[in-house]
């Protein structure tokens, strides 16, 4: 079943593509006359700009509709330095740092937890408007609307070579980053942010890093473009340029280097030739092309071509990231570290959750010892999922405290809680659907809290890399979700109706696997479950939740014979 891993194939293909592109670029000055070569030079600079935007939009899903502000910082940096005789060796790093710092400030403000994705769109739009206006108004620095001239002699030789060298250097740095932890996390967050967060990855941090990198590359493109265009004027940082780069990327295709450069080259060269023929109607043509691409080819031209070619599974989503499990998984200790110190795994005190006027959790006190298997039962709407969400950090409580392993985590984010060893399974399996099962496991293992040897029932996914996870049956997706959470090595696992939708045989097998996980790996399990056969098979202790309160706690027989439970839960027990 297992051939070479998709990520390894992607890597080989990328290296071959890179080598081919370098040869083609090296040959260009010998086969092209000066005008096409200068157009190619401009296309490379714009392609670099589009690639910069792709790092935010295509790779991290962070939309920026004002990226020309960063491009403008680069272009004006070179223009002002040239005007004032400041050495470029000093001006360029300062310019890139400035763009990075600006992006960091925008990212910190716009990617705060709980803010909507449109916040970044609004902030970046404001930034490009301010940048363009600043370039118009700061006459002593920018020469206003007249702009600044940059020495552009020798464009055909010098600037083409400069553009190619910068381009190759950026690509090499990018490939190195993509092969490492950053590339893997970027992929994980893009494909399934909540799952990644529950594997301890901080999505906000990853997105801010991508945005800063993206702005720095855009500024570098501005540095490269300044001598090519010769005149740096306010439009270079403005809203039209910001829109143009969005068009480059939409036309070429997001999520791969080729798309950015192809889009930039097609639009730039088209503008040059078509613009000469039809004048400003060219903008109308661009607008129509943009709408058509967004409507009929959301993956751009590269996406259109690759969707027609049958590509090995997992490659599209992996986008060159190397997803491999660590080579030397250590054995999981039978009892997790720190288990003997006597602190409960979970300690919830006076927990309250209200949604508006509706009280869903009304003062829950619950202590779960390490190594326990606790089944949480109760009628529909009792607040079981809400309680798991509160413990996992997916919801903030209205009142009360939550302690994990003795630590007060009430105000902690899900990824901070995950790092204490808290694993989470959802009612609908939360996996990486665009990746293969083997890649899913490898992603989890690479983030491992404790490296684990998986039970055979779960280890069967390790070699499944010839199909996408989205093609697995529901039972297998549930098993894979459990496998990936367990491969990550949690100490405490919250499971929300893990047997829902499974056949009786699959449910019994699941209960046996959970028992084995508890026995062999020492994991504490908290299981919300409606299937009373599974509850009987699983639970050391059953906790009954009704109307947002703990009604009682005990073994299954005690709970089943309790009158209040029967009243709250008629017929189910
Ligand atoms: N984000 C939310 N906003 C508003 N109300 C919510 C929200 N989440 C849950 N609720 C409400 O809280 C109540 C408890 O929901 P919850 O999903 O926790 O119950 P449950 O015990 O898990 O039920 P079930 O067994 O049906 O899954 C329900 O009335 C639900 O509509």
Automatic annotation (TrEMBL):
Q: How does it sit in the membrane?
A: Multi-pass membrane protein
Instruction: Cite a single Pfam family from the UniProt record.
Output: BPD_transp_2
- Gene3D superfamilies (UniProt xref): ABC transporter involved in vitamin B12 uptake, BtuC, P-loop containing nucleotide triphosphate hydrolases
What is one cellular component GO term in this UniProt entry?
plasma membrane
Q: Where is this protein found? A: Cell membrane
Extract the SMART domains matched here.
AAA
Give me the segments passing through the membrane: 62-82, 88-108, 159-178, 210-233, 245-269, 281-305
GO molecular function, a single term: ATP hydrolysis activity
Q: Where is the ABC transporter domain?
A: 346-572
Q: Per its UniProt entry, which superkingdom is the organism in?
A: Bacteria
What keywords does the record list, in alphabetical order? ATP-binding, Cell membrane, Membrane, Nucleotide-binding, Transmembrane, Transmembrane helix, Transport
Q: Which InterPro entries match?
A: AAA+_ATPase, ABC_AA/LPS_Transport, ABC_BtuC-like, ABC_transp_permease, ABC_transporter-like_ATP-bd, LivM-like, P-loop_NTPase
PANTHER family per UniProt:
ABC TRANSPORTER ATP-BINDING PROTEIN, CONSERVED COMPONENT OF ABC TRANSPORTER FOR NATURAL AMINO ACIDS-RELATED
Protein name as annotated: ATP-binding cassette domain-containing protein
């Amino acid at each position: 079943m297992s051939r070479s891993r998709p990520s390894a194939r992607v890597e080989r293909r990328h290296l071959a593509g890179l080598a081919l592109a370098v040869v083609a670029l090296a040959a260009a000055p010998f086969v092209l006359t000066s005008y096409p070569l200068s157009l190619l030079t401009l296309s490379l600079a714009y392609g670099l700009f589009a690639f910069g935007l792709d790092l935010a939009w295509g790779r991290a899903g962070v939309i920026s509709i004002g990226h020309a502000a960063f491009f403008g910082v680069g272009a004006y940096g070179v223009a002002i330095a040239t005007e004032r005789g400041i050495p470029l060796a000093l001006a360029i790093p300062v310019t890139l740092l400035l763009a990075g710092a600006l992006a960091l400030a925008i990212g910190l403000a716009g990617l705060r937890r709980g803010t909507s994705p449109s916040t970044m769109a609004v902030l970046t739009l404001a930034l490009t408007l301010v940048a363009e206006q600043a370039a118009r108004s700061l006459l002593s620095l920018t020469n206003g609307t007249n702009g600044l001239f940059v020495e552009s002699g020798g464009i055909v030789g010098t600037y083409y070579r400069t553009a190619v060298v910068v381009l190759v250097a950026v690509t090499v740095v990018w490939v190195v980053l993509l092969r490492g932890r950053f590339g893997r996390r970027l992929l994980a967050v893009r494909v399934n942010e909540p799952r990644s967060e529950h594997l301890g990855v901080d999505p906000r941090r990853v997105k801010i890093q991508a945005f800063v990198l993206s702005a720095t590359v855009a500024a570098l493109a501005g540095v490269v473009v300044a001598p090519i265009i010769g005149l740096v004027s306010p439009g270079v940082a403005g809203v039209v340029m910001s829109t143009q780069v969005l068009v480059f990327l939409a036309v070429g295709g997001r999520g791969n280097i080729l798309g950015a450069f192809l889009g930039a080259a097609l639009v730039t060269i088209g503008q040059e030739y078509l613009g000469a023929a039809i004048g400003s109607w060219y903008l109308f043509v661009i607008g129509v092309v943009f709408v058509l691409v967004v409507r009929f080819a959301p993956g751009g031209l590269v996406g259109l071509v690759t969707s027609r070619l049958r590509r090995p599974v997992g490659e599209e989503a992996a986008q060159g990231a190397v997803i491999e499990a660590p080579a030397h998984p250590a054995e999981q200790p039978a009892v997790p570290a720190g288990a003997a110190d006597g602190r409960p795994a979970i300690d919830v005190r006076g927990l309250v959750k209200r949604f508006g006027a509706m009280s869903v959790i009304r003062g829950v006190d619950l202590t779960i010892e390490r190594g326990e298997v606790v089944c949480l039962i109760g009628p529909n709407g009792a607040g079981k999922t809400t309680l798991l969400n509160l413990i996992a950090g997916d919801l903030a409580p209205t009142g009360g405290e939550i302690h994990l392993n003795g630590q007060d985590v009430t105000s902690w984010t899900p990824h901070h809680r995950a790092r204490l060893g808290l694993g989470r399974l959802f009612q609908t399996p939360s996996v990486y659907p665009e990746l293969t099962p083997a890649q899913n496991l490898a992603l989890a293992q690479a983030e491992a809290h404790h490296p684990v040897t998986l039970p055979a029932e779960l280890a069967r996914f390790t070699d499944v890399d010839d199909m996408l996870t989205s093609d697995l049956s529901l039972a297998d997706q549930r098993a894979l979700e459990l496998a990936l959470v367990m491969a990550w090595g949690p100490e405490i696992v919250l499971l929300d109706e893990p047997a829902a939708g499974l056949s009786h045989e699959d449910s019994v097998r699941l209960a046996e696997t959970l028992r084995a996980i508890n026995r062999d790996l020492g994991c504490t399990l908290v299981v919300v479950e409606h299937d009373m056969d599974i509850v009987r098979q699983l639970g050391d202790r059953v906790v009954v939740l009704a109307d947002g309160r703990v009604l009682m706690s005990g073994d299954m027989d005690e709970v089943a014979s309790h009158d209040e439970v029967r009243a709250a839960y008629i017929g189910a027990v």
